[in-house]
Each structure stands twice: as C-alpha cells, then as structure tokens.
Amino acid sequence: MKIIRQMTLVFALLTVPPSLHAAYVSSLLASGMMIDASSQTVRGTVSIAFSAIAILLASSASPQVTTSTTTTQNTSASPANPVRDARALAVLSQCAVTMGSVGPADSYLATGQIEYADGQTPPADVVIKGLGADRVRRELSGGQSVWIVNRGRGSASVNGRPHKLPDSHTKYFRPEHNPAALCSLDAARAMMHVAYVGVESVNSKPAHHIRFFATSQDPNENVISDFHLFVDAQSFLVVQTKTFAFSSEAIENRSDWETYYSDYRRVGTVLLPFRIDNSLRGQRLLTLTFTSVRNDVPASDKDFR
Questions:
Q1: What pTM was computed for the model?
Q2: Average pLDDT over residues 94-105
Q3: How does residue 247 score in pLDDT terms, banded at 50, 70 and 90?
Q4: Of the N and C termini of the chain, which has fewer Cβ atoms inside 10 Å?
Q5: How high is the pLDDT of residue 161?
Q6: Which CATH superfamily is domain 2-63+83-304 in?
C-alpha cells in the first residue's frame, strides 16, 4: 500500500506546472497528507483526488505551523499611502524594457516536460495556455486534469470533477511561466507597496531584490499578497521569485515557494525562460523544460472558464 501511495504521489506531482505550483501546494496543505522531506515517505492518506503533489516538503510527521523566513512587516507603510521606492521602480522599468511587455490580449502556448528531483518524469507533456498576465490554463493528458486561473479566480478538475480554488491562493496570481509580465504586474496594482530590499546573490550573481505587498486592516491580506522578485543586476532578466505556499485552513501554516529561471529565448517580442526550477523551503522540487513556446496561437476568455 505504501508503494502505491508513493507512486501516485510522484505521478501527480510531476503533472503540475510551475505557473500553478504555489497555489496547488497551498490547496493541498489541508488534505491531511504529510510527507517526510528527506525520505519522501507518505505518512498520511490522500484526502482529495488531485492530492499527490501535496506537501512534498511542507511538514514533518505531524501537522504543525511552519513559519517562513520571509518578512511580511513594514511599519512605515499604510493602505492609504503605498510606498513605491524610486530605485525599485527604475529596476522594474529596465526589466520591462529588456524582457518585453505582456499585454492583455497577448497569448501564450507552451509545451514542456517535468523532471522530478529524483530524475523521474511523467508520461505526458504539460500544456500551458496563457492570455495576458491574469489568465492561464494547464492541461494534462488531453484534458484529464485541468487547472484554470482567470482574473483572480481559479478552479481545478480531475477526471471531470471540478473544485474551486480558494481566493487566498488566486487573488494575487502571478504567471510564473511568463516572468516578463512580472516586471510590471504588481507595480500596476493600485494599493501595492514596492520596496527595494537590496542587492543579493542568486546563482552566484548579483541581483536586485524587490518586494511587493498590499497592506490593509486585515493582516492576512499583507501575507497573501507578499511577493519577492529578483532581477539580475547586469542583464535585468528575472532570475528568481519567492512567494508563499499556504494551507487553506491556517494562513500561518506557510512555506517559501521559490522559482528560478534560465535558458531565456526570444519569442516574438518577449524573452521567455525555457527552463524553470521550483523549490519549497529551500529544497529543489522539480524542473520544467519547455520544448515549444509560441505566441501566435489564438486565445479567448472562453479558454479560461
């Protein structure tokens, strides 16, 4: 039985693309499935059909609150007076010029192969379709599993059984598969604070660290909006992002979700990564390598319903 559970876990884990991984892991934190990060041994049962990516690295043998190292406090900011650091905005502007802009009608179709941290790969490609910066659809096995986020709302279905994604997982959705959009997306949100954290090392190269967060009277809003963008100091390409993977039952139960980008190539007027690596709590989870990326495939809002 344990072997079957492990194989089920690995297969479904491999089917999930980076654009939805953080929300996906978040939605599964409440499923009751606990996995030892070092041995990858299932310690609980799967309580929802899609639950296999589950908490691959999220907890130990018993449920407990995980406090992330990411700071979410800013005493000088207020909802009525968002802080927009001039240096951060200058870096973002250069980033947008370098990588290209993503308009609301710009479509995107990518096919890729996922490789798990232990070298295993799924039997089918992942297909990601995007429209603008706020709509994405992921399909596996000809629609057997489908994930959709459309303008702050999301749903998932497996074998025709749909369920709604929690608003906390999709309200501040960012298209991780298309980092060119990240240069301007959060800066355009009305009440988003933009902070310049400093220069840090990403893959042994200096990168500008910029943090976004929305403050409100509800402290949970500060947390679910928190997002970190790392822009290479020389090329001005997005090289890393960091956000949270949440439990839907307890927002305090969260872990850092990190995405790394490489192998950039120009597709039309936009630079896009053909390799994306994901880590949870500092441990590599999987790698997505795109085999095809196109921007000439028509898309409409009905594709994301």
A1: 0.75
A2: 94
A3: low
A4: N
A5: 84
A6: Lipoprotein localisation LolA/LolB/LppX (2.50.20.10)
